[in-house]
Amino acid sequence: MILEMKVPSPGESITEVEIAEWLVEDGDYVEKDQAIAEVDSDKATLELPAEASGTITLKAEVGDAVDVGAIVCLIDTSAEKPGGASEAASSSSGGDEGSSSNAEKDLDEQKAQKEKKEDSEKAPQPKQAKETYASGVASPAAKKILSEKGVDASSVSGTGRDGRITKSDAMEAKPSMGSPVTGGNRGESRSKLSMLRRKVAERLVSAKNETAMLTTFNEVDMSAIFELRKQYKEDFKERHGVSLGFMSFFTKAVVRALELYPSVNSMIDGKEMISYDFCDISIAVSGPKGLMVPVIRNAENLSFRGVESEVKRLAIRAREGEITVDEMTGGTFTITNGGVFGSMLSTPIINPPQSAILGMHNIVERPVARDGAIAIAPVMYVALSYDHRIIDGKESVGFLVAIKEALESPEELLMDNDVKKALEM
What we know:
This protein is α+β, with helices and mostly antiparallel strands. It has helices at 85-93, 95-122, 140-149, 167-172, 195-210, 223-240, 246-260, 304-319, 325-328, 393-408, 410-413, 419-424, and strands spanning 2-6, 16-22, 29-30, 35-40, 45-49, 54-58, 65-67, 71-76, 213-221, 266-269, 272-275, 281-283, 285-287, 290-292, 295-296, 333-337, 356-360, 363-370, 373-387.
């Protein structure tokens, strides 16, 4: 029986996927539920499992865009698994005859290759163009183009009559990368962008072009959080099985600030503004296929333990390529942490259709003023990029200040005056 395998729907609104990689070869025997391909949608990379055991025939190439529901391969479920007794008996019964046939085949192939080589050597070689007075001379149009590109005419081979440089030659000419190179590797390579990467690129450009994006900055003294983590980190991990990281403090601070400034938890839809009474926080994590943004649902209802557990779960699924489209769909606000890569300061780009994104950065000991004296403290710069069409400057600055206040006074503003209880929930 021949089973037709069709592309399953990865999620709502996705009508097309791209074959990122075949994990099997045409003609291979595959087991049921074995991963046979990786497919890219505009939101995630997903594995395609075999629906049955049998011999596979591929019907799409790597890089092909395939509609959801289209046939990508055939599986012959009646085929026997290789390595069985019947196959071994068959190969041994035709031993002499098969080896004789193979030897004749090898001789024919060697003869054909030899004849091909001789024909190629006899083929007429292209004649070298003669140097003339016109060689390397650019036409007026070509000269103008080369001048604009900063390309020396002597570095261009002319294809026109008598070696003259034509307009087409000038348009194809590439400017040199700096001064003449005397040695070293100068290679380059090209590779097709995955559908996910192309979609990310489109969304980033769209966010820059279609929003009135602005970024405001502040700095946070992380001393209080350092002290709390030092005091409760070991007990927290032993009790809950997850570390007490910075993300739970930032998520709780963002939730508090969104409640104080609801316009930041809103989006533009045509001529209307949609405001949400829940906080679905998107967190940017690095995966094998690039940046992914899974969502912590209803973060306003989660404790420190709940946030840390969810962050760990989503990060592991993203790294292992198991994250689903549904887990990355939606989100009312995004947090991105460039600090894990050593970033001191950045202007994060809004994750559309959201209206704002918070950028965390690395923590560095810096001099700060305390009670008229200079002290050294762990300081993080934070950035809020926001859509000025829907969020005013006063609200954006107030929102970031609210985050700063919560992080610098976590016991008072994030833990309901009961640190132990909040951490043990």
